[in-house]
Specification:
The protein is an alpha/beta fold. The protein folds into two domains: 115 residues, HUPs (Rossmann fold, 3-Layer(aba) Sandwich), CATH 3.40.50; 115 residues, Alpha-Beta Complex (Glutamyl-tRNA Synthetase, domain 3), CATH 3.90.800.10. Helix content is 39%, strand content 16%. It contains ten helices and twelve strands. Strands 1-2-3 form a three-stranded parallel sheet, with helices on one face. It is globular and about 60 Å long. The relative contact order is 0.18. The structure holds glutamic acid (GLU). The site of glutamic acid has 7 residues, from loops.
Length: 279
């Protein structure tokens, strides 16, 4: 059975881009007599707000979508992400990273040949080779640290990987293109990459529908699935709705929220037509 999900972060109001993601998942599930889930991605508890979470429910219902209950809220499941992290730790695939953003930027500026990936400069590996004594001393001194995945080591274990993408076909995974990603942040005991991969597996998601801005993240998610023995869903990275300048819609760039469109008198049907016409 096909299981899809819409997984917004409640740190702002939904806009047309979110409507497209939600509709893509909802329709894919319904066309196949499958299940559609909503997941609230609120690991960043400092940014998540109850009013945005409430608005997600209202806006999706207004659009005519239905989803299964109970809704999984990531902030209630930190233990699941911790268990996955402990497993990767136990495999010797992680390391503590004490770097500040400034440290990383300075190191990248110093090395003109610093490798770049689709999302910019990669983590330059400052903490990858620290000795056990150095790490222990820093931790004992109370230095805060993130946990990173040693991607090269991980790939040596898994060998080549791929995934099936609905629009692009078979894709060879290239996790190294994102470098040693963060699995647990300094301030949060997990990360987007780890939580989303664990949850899609735990919830039995078989088709991940999300915007193509997250296409690159799938390289890492595929690697995490292989390391954690998780099932591999298919992926549908849909196109993005763009504004008049060709930029993708974003809260930060003033994309109108669905609720603003509603207040301005736009009907849910008109929103759906707009999404369908521009997608
Ligand atoms: N929570 C992510 C976001 O709002 C989407 C995660 C996903 O679909 O994988 O951008």
């Amino acid at each position: 059975m096909i299981v899809t999900r819409f997984a917004p972060s409640p740190n702002g109001f939904l806009h047309l881009g979110h409507a497209l993601s939600a509709l893509t998942g909802f329709r894919a599930a319904h066309a196949a007599g499958g299940r559609f889930l909503l997941r609230i991605e609120d690991i960043d508890t400092g940014r998540a707000r109850p009013e945005f979470e409430q608005a997600i429910h209202e806006d999706l219902a207004w659009l005519g979508l239905e989803w299964e209950r109970p809704v999984r809220r990531q902030s209630e499941h930190f233990g699941d992400y911790e268990a996955a992290l402990t497993r990767l730790d136990g495999m010797g695939l992680t390391y503590p990273c004490f770097c500040t953003r400034k440290d990383i930027e300075a190191e990248i500026a110093r090395s003109p040949a610093a490798p770049h990936g689709p999302e910019g400069a990669l983590y330059p590996g400052i903490c990858r080779h620290r000795s056990g004594t150095d790490r222990a001393a820093r931790i004992a001194a109370g230095e805060k640290f993130a946990v990173r995945l040693d991607v090269e080591k991980a790939l040596a274990l898994t060998g080549p990987l791929s995934w099936h993408d609905k629009l692009k076909g078979e894709i060879a995974a290239d996790p190294a293109s994102l470098g040693d990603v963060v699995l647990a942040r300094k301030d949060i005991p997990t990360s987007y990459h780890l939580a989303v991969t664990v949850d899609d597996a735990l919830q039995g998601v078989t088709l991940v529908t999300r915007g193509e801005d997250l296409f690159h993240a799938t390289h890492i998610h595929r690697l995490l699935q292989a390391l954690l023995d998780l099932p591999v869903p298919a992926y549908w990275h849909h196109g993005l709705i763009r504004d008049a300048n060709g930029d993708r819609l974003a809260k930060s760039k003033g994309a109108p929220a669905l609720r603003d469109l509603r207040t301005a008198g736009m009907s849910a049907e008109a929103v759906v037509r707009r999404v369908d016409g521009t997608a």
